[in-house]
Amino acid sequence: MAQKKKLLQGNEACVEGALYAGCKFYAGYPITPSTEIAEGLSVRLPKVGGKFIQMEDEIASIAAAIGGSVAGLKSLTATSGPGFSLKQECLGYACIAEIPLVIVNVMRGGPSTGYPTGPSQADIMQAKWGTHGDHPVIAVTPSYVQEILSETVRAFNLAEKFRTPVIVLYDEIIGHMREPITIPVPGELEVIDREKVTCEADEYFPYDERYEIAPLAPFGSGYRFHVTGLNHKKDGFPTNDSKQIDANNRRIMRKIENHKEEIWKNEETFLDDAEVVVFTLGSTARSARFAVNKAREEGIKAGLLRPLTIWPFPDKAITELSKRVKAIIVPEMNLGQMTLEVERCSKKADVVGIHRVDGEPITPAQILDAIKKHK
Amino acid sequence: MSERYEIRFSGSGGQGMILAGIIMAEAASIYGTKNAAQSQSYGPESRGGASKAEVIISDQPIDYPKATSISCMLAMTQEACDKYHGDIKDGGILLVDAEEVKKIPDGKFRVFSFPIIGTARDELGKTIAANIVSLGMITELTGIVTHEAIEKAVLARVPAAFLDLNKKALQLGFEKAKGLKNK
Question: Could you report the per-residue pLDDT of A291-312, keeping only the tens digit for each?
Fold first, then answer.
């Protein structure tokens, strides 16, 4: 039966996505413009046998979500820039301890408490480098309300499959705007559940080197292991062995690097014959699509490359594209975070940033002007 | 309708401008057959301050969700009118609350001035219903959604205890706007 359309807010679609993916635990601390996610899950989770808890702050929230995940439940926390800053310590912990987790960051103006009700895309680098040390990061970047639902599901899938925290990164505009969407029926979207552990208890090691990614047994299920932020041995207990430290540090990077092709997701519009291409994400990609359509109406060969995975960075797609287009325009609501990455990857094409940090969206007219200047 | 039809509801926080935007978007996309995108901007305060909600309606998929060239704008306060009227397109509509907005901005748009809040107060006994009166007026003035669609959308969004009040508010909006059009 076809599902009825509903007019939902981006953050409400995130709630639907989390529930669809089988999220059973949310721990958070409210913050504009992400609060509707907590509100929604506080009502909905208890109805599906899940648990909602509002913690005393953002640090405790991600710590609790890590605990929920170690205990075997798909877990979520949601926040905005100031809270995302606080969560960084535990984000690194989840990376090294290899705990599946989804963290939503609805970006608002920064730095610090900045502009609570205004949009921004200035946490792109924070998502990658906010926590210290070499660590793998997966971040997904929806642009449409329907996509917030499906990308939240994908984030849970990637978290479970790669045993790592995954960030859902979108801006205030799409977090708060409403569009008609359909809630998918069960089976319509892929849902990946955590691999079950079947071996004998004394043969189980959560960081077993024989696997690229060992399965994670729920804590308390009879499989004994240790969880720590220190470098650890296969049983999870700390180690000072340099060989072991090196092997683990490289393995947690490799488990993502080796699978970039399946983690990457790009939407390509008019790229076949494009001479000038816009590369952008989130609500700015909506402005870009509007501008690219207008440019095409005027006979300009413009295209759009829209990443739905921003980390790992889609370097291959940009490098290939840069060999055959004149210019890559990178509009972003920050002062050049993605532009730098695109410059790193571009082999031939000019890279042109459009930046805005006044709490207003980058308009289609701004992007169209740049397209015309660089066609 | 391949063009975007853009409506901006503006006033101060607490006047229900965002709810009016949501209801208009639902009338167009859930109870009608068009696409709609509704967005808003507001300050940190929950009451007061200039607040606006925007609805883009189109037969096509909607990419840019914010208004660029407004077909119809509602202003419920002078501050909101002054701050937000600049994007109304030539030939567009500006509907203002006659008691709140005394200074009408210059522009090549049609202005309808009507005591919307006063009507809600005097004829319904509830100023809070002014946003629903304004929805009725905008529906009548623009014809962008049908009377049936807006009524369904209103009734689906308001508390059950206030169905009659809101139904009356909407009808009042239809009637008053009809009067204005025929003037």
Answer: 999 999 999 999 999 999 999 9
Closest by Cβ to B44, choosing from A7, A116, A361: A116
Of residues B144 and B13, the one with the higher pLDDT is: B144
Interface test with A, best of B63, B84, B150 (most A CBs within 10 A): B63
Average pLDDT over residues A212-230: 95
Residue the block writes with tokens 């009825």: A4
B124 contacts B165 by C-beta, under 8 angstroms:
yes
Residue A114 lies in a domain: yes
What is the spatial distance between Cα A140 and Cα A152, in angstroms, rounded to a whole number?
Answer: 8
A52 shares its domain with A170 = yes
| Host domain of residue A270 | 265-374
B43 with B6: CB under 8 angstroms?
A: no
A361 within domain boundaries: yes
pLDDT at B2: 55
Contact B36 A180 (CB under 8 A): yes
Minimum Cα–Cα distance from B28: chain A residue: A180
Q: What is the pLDDT of residues A115-141, one digit of tens each?
A: 999 999 999 999 999 999 999 999 999
Of A178, A287, A365, the CB nearest to B38: A178
Query: Over the stretch B82-104, which tens digit does the pLDDT of each residue have?
Result: 999 999 999 999 999 999 999 99
User: Which backbone phi and psi does A103 adopt, to 5 degrees?
Assistant: -120, 120
Residues A140 and A40 in one domain: yes
Q: Which residues of B touch A5 (CB under 8 A)?
A: 29-30
Above 80 in pLDDT, residue A2?
A: no
CATH number belonging to the domain at B5-115+145-158, selected among 3.30.160.70, 3.40.50.720, 3.40.605.10, 3.40.920.10 = 3.40.920.10
Q: Is B40 on the interface with A (CB under 8 A)?
A: yes
Q: What count of residues does chain A have? A: 375
Helix (H, G, I), strand (E, B) or coil at A266: strand
Flag if A180 and B63 touch (Cβ within 8 Å): no
**Contacts with A292 from chain B: Cβ below 8 Å:** none
* Residue B1 reports pLDDT greater than 50: no
CA atoms within 13 A on the CB side of A368: 17
